[in-house]
Write a structure and sequence with these properties.
The chain has 127 residues and is mainly α. The chain has 6 helices and 3 strands. The chain has one domain (24-119). The longest helix is centred in the N-terminal third of the chain and has 18 residues, at 24-41.
Length: 127
């Protein structure tokens, strides 16, 4: 069994692989599951925003357009550059709602869902 710590660059994600290799489809499936977990349960820092944006294939400009240009593309780039800095509660809530909609996820409209206080424990996946 092989263990990959910090899967996709996240300290809190560990993947345990029981086969001799991880296929591209398995890796993409894991990244998709991770994106959904982030949207539903994890605080959003620049690192998470970049991951979600890239997972959905959006440029800064396209993502800004989804927010009806409430954010300038350069603002999104600044968030991502500050990998370990958390978004403000209002910005995090909007970003979370957009990606929840994109993935077809339902969030409860309460502060704990829209702006979680802390990271859940380590996320473990097995393949």
């Amino acid at each position: 069994m092989k263990t990959i710590k910090q899967f996709a660059g996240f300290k809190y994600v560990t993947v345990e692989i029981s086969t001799s290799s991880l296929s591209m489809n398995d890796a993409l499936d894991l990244e998709d599951k991770l994106a959904k977990e982030i949207v539903c349960h994890f605080p959003l820092h620049g690192r998470e925003v970049r991951f979600l944006r890239k997972q959905t294939g959006l440029s800064y400009v396209k993502l800004a357009q989804f927010f009806q240009n409430s954010f300038d593309p350069s603002t999104i780039a600044k968030w991502e550059k500050r990998e370990d800095e958390r978004l403000s509660p209002a910005n995090e809530s909007l970003v979370r709602l957009y990606f929840a909609r994109h993935y077809g996820l339902k969030l409860k409209a309460n502060p704990d869902d829209l702006y979680p206080k802390e990271f859940p424990k380590e996320l473990r996946y097995a393949c």
